[in-house]
Amino acid sequence: MRLQSLYRQFLHFRGSYHPIVHSLLLGTILARMASSMSLPFLAIHLTRTTDLSAVMIGFIIGAGSLAGTFGGFVGGTLSDLFGRRKIMLGALLGWGVVFAGFATAQNVLLFFLLSLLNGLCRSFYEPVSQALMADLTGKEKRMRVFSLRYLAINIGVTVGPLLGALFAAVNSSLAFSITSGTYFAYAFSLYLLLNKFGIRQIEVEKKKDQTFLKVWNVVRSDLVLRYYLLGGIVTAISYSQMTATLSQYVGGKFEDGVTLFAVMTSVNAIIVVVLQVPFSRWAEKRTPLTAIAVGTLMYALGNVGFGLSENWLFFLLSMAVFTFGEILTFPAGALLTDKIAPEKMRGAYYGAQSFSSLGHFIGPWVGGLLLSRYNGTVMFVSMAFVALSSVLFYRMGESVLARRNRMGTAPRELGRKAKA
User: For a pLDDT cut of 70, what percent of the chain falls above it?
Assistant: First the structure.
């Protein structure tokens, strides 16, 4: 009976979403697993294969993130103009070339260019795949789809580094070669699936009078989107402490701090994998702004916990609370963007979300400054207030949206007014 029940649930899940959505969810697991089994070891690979300094290695790795910050809007807009299919397949093939290059390159400039291209490929693929999921899913199911996508990301990130460590022990280039092959194989399988299910017929068609500049003018003039992006940037400043300064703080506080941080990272991943679906069901019954408000409160409580904890147990409990915020805010943020995106500009709006990554650039710098000048308690408590302040930007965006809806003014019209 139990097996029959599970089988019925599987059939229901399979029938709830378009086959392309299922393939993109599976592809997200594979893509993140492949990249996370190689990119975390890029610094080690560069150390072994070049004579670069630690500063230059950090600069090369960081170049990819910087390129991705601005590449998302470009990739998303191009997908609106020329179709999701071409941009996604191009990004996957480009990724395959990038990781093949990482495995074989010896020249410093080539490593730098490959890092830039890696950031661009990610920023092209992720918002476009997300936009295609939204294209193929009814509005009432998009929150769950975004949650499943985030779950897929975390499954890949959980498994990838373990495989990467095994491959790195054999040869530092091996993981990059396997990642390259994975992306080429995924591109080929996705190409077949997109053709099989007639993706050309359901893609957003290019408008004859729509150009990149006109799309940019609409996005740039959308005040609601700007408030949402500011909220995302502020949230990212707070969230980035978990990936940047927390390891330094824990490492300096305990002799076995490295082990503690590794355990905390595992707890984060396990909680996301186990609780993403139940939390998404709760969030579906609330507004996206409510989910974000509760999520940022969890961020704040988690940060305060990090700053005040004195033993392993409280650090792990703080990480659990912090992770609850992560589960809620990431899908809800995507849903807010989806709510305001014009049908023919969904890719551009999803791509514009990448500007929020500026918070991941600002956050480690500000956090490191507070940690060095004061202490961890001051830094984490300050970041708790930063997290809470993000809700103000989201609320201002909601207020402008409500006023815009009452006036019946669309983003396109706003763009024309701004141009005039």
Answer: 88
